[in-house]
Amino acid sequence: MVVLSKIYTKTGDAGETALGNGARVAKHALRVSAYGTVDETNATLGMARLHATGEMDAALQRIQNDLFDLGADLCRPDMARDHEAGYTPLRILDTQVERLEAEIDAMNARLTPLRSFILPGGSALAAHLHLCRTVSRRAERLTVELATMEEINTAAVKYLNRLSDWFFVAARIANDDGKADVLWVPGLTR
């Protein structure tokens, strides 16, 4: 259980932060940027939820919880030493990826195939979900870059890849099952 009785600690005043294993690294370290962008994705998702109701809101809430799991996963390096932690460190599981895939498939079954790219927008929820999509893509790029230098849970990378797809399809659902999608017209303003 987490207990936060004091919010500021002053331990980061010199530009360093602690990872989940206690190691101290620069606040600009790639790992910190990766899990920080996952946190940013979660914050944009909180904004999207202001416009969501019913099952969509419930799904977004599940994803917000997953994003905290993902941040916990990414902030703890050296997976080979997980057994030394004294507890089982939290890692994203393939079952979480599979849940996203099943939800994408279910939502996509309601939609007609696209014949054009779409522009981010339409309803307020769709616009926010497109923002979530782009921020999660940035988190994915940073995590993939990190994986070229350090060991990363492969399920974490897969989760981020599916998540941006999930947000794309959910944005179409939020646009009246795609009927209110804003279509790109190539060269429209030439």
TrEMBL record:
InterPro entries: CblAdoTrfase-like, CblAdoTrfase-like_sf, PduO-typ. GO terms for molecular function: ATP binding; corrinoid adenosyltransferase activity. Pathway: Cofactor biosynthesis; adenosylcobalamin biosynthesis; adenosylcobalamin from cob(II)yrinate a,c-diamide: step 2/7. Pfam families: Cob_adeno_trans. It catalyses: 2 cob(II)alamin + reduced [electron-transfer flavoprotein] + 2 ATP = 2 adenosylcob(III)alamin + 2 triphosphate + oxidized [electron-transfer flavoprotein] + 3 H(+); 2 cob(II)yrinate a,c diamide + reduced [electron-transfer flavoprotein] + 2 ATP = 2 adenosylcob(III)yrinate a,c-diamide + 2 triphosphate + oxidized [electron-transfer flavoprotein] + 3 H(+). Residues 7-173 form the Cobalamin adenosyltransferase-like domain. It comes from the Bacteria. Coiled coil: none annotated. The keyword Transit peptide does not apply. Its EC number is 2.5.1.17. It is found in: Cytoplasm. GO terms for cellular component: cytoplasm. It is an enzyme of class 2 (transferase). Keywords: ATP-binding, Cobalamin biosynthesis, Cytoplasm, Nucleotide-binding, Transferase. The keyword Cell inner membrane does not apply. One of its GO terms (biological process) is cobalamin biosynthetic process. Belongs to the Cob(I)alamin adenosyltransferase family. This is Corrinoid adenosyltransferase. It comes from Gemmobacter aquatilis.
